[in-house]
Amino acid sequence: MTGWPLPLAQLLVHIRLITVLFPSHDSLDAVNGANAKTTSTRHDWRDSLAWRIVWPTLLAALFVLLTGLVDGGVGVAPAKVFAQPLYLLANALPGLLLASLLLVLTRRAMLSFGCAFALQTVLYAVNKLKIANLNMPLMPQDFGMVGQLRKGGMHLLGGYLPSSPWPYLGILAAIAVIVAIWKCEPTLFRRRTRGKRIVAGIAVVATLGTLLAGVPGWAHVYNGKRLWMEPWSASGTAEHSGLVSSLVMFHLDQARQQHKKPDAQSAKQLIAQNDSELRARMQAASPNQGMTPDIVVIQSESF
């Protein structure tokens, strides 16, 4: 694959909005003399424009590689970064957008990417639990359980949680690291930017919101031609395109199906034209001659 993919261009636009438009935070050193006070401005390498572009870009690249590593799919492995970079970038793009939004809010690059990666790791942990119990990866329908937590959903999900204390200790350790980064990491740009943070925040929220809402335009990136999608196999799709890309593609497909309006009149005409032939064939093929079945099986493929 040659050339830069579309998601990378969008990400660079967001980094440009967040960093280039925002002035650096120059610190003022006051030097008191015996008879006069002079003020000088101190510049260090972290105040340079190059650093404010390079540092978030390096963190974004590391985020993409680590996402592929945690995912474990053959199509998004870090070794595939040069063979099929779009696979890795598309799988990490929602997390990168979340990190960009946190960067606008906190002004701390390492904290923002760390929090986004931690939340993404929780998603992969839940996916691992579902595979271990149901042999199926997460699907968009599974997120409907979030709205049912107070109506028995928490009790149901509690049966899938690990009994070992190590995962919970890991969560506490991650929270402690995040708090330490919050206190120690310097900000990347000034708090007051004359509305530029608001503009950048709105741009990132709009981009991430359209992705979560399943706007059809994202299908130009998340589709079976650019990525790997098996509509009949969520496991195969996640294995080759990554879990996050799989969730986005199935979400976009469901949104597209919901926007389709059924043609009831055409359906009625089709049934009327073939009603007698279908009934005759069904009666000839059925040995029960109209008897109802004794057992009805309902299969559910989600939590």
What descriptive keywords fit this protein?
single chain, two-stranded antiparallel sheet, elongated, 4% strand, 303 residues, 10 helices, mainly alpha
Could you characterize what this model shows?
- With 303 residues, this protein is mostly helical.
- It has helices at 6-20, 49-71, 85-106, 109-134, 153-158, 166-184, 196-213, 234-241, 243-259, 264-285; strands spanning 27-32, 37-42.
- Strands 1-2 form a two-stranded antiparallel ribbon.
- A hairpin with a 4-residue loop joins strand 1 and strand 2.
- Helix 1 (6-20) packs across helix 2, helix 2 packs parallel to helix 4 and helix 3 (85-106) packs across helix 9 (243-259).
- The longest helix has 26 residues, at 109-134.
- It starts with 5 loop residues before the first helix and ends in an 18-residue tail after the last helix.
- Mean pLDDT is 81; it is low at 24-43.
Task: Summarize the helix and strand pattern as letters.
Answer: HEEHHHHHHHHH
Unreliable stretches, pLDDT < 50, 5 or more residues? 24-43
pLDDT averaged over residues: 81
Strand element count: 2
How far apart lie the N and C ends?
Answer: 37 Å
Number of helices: 10
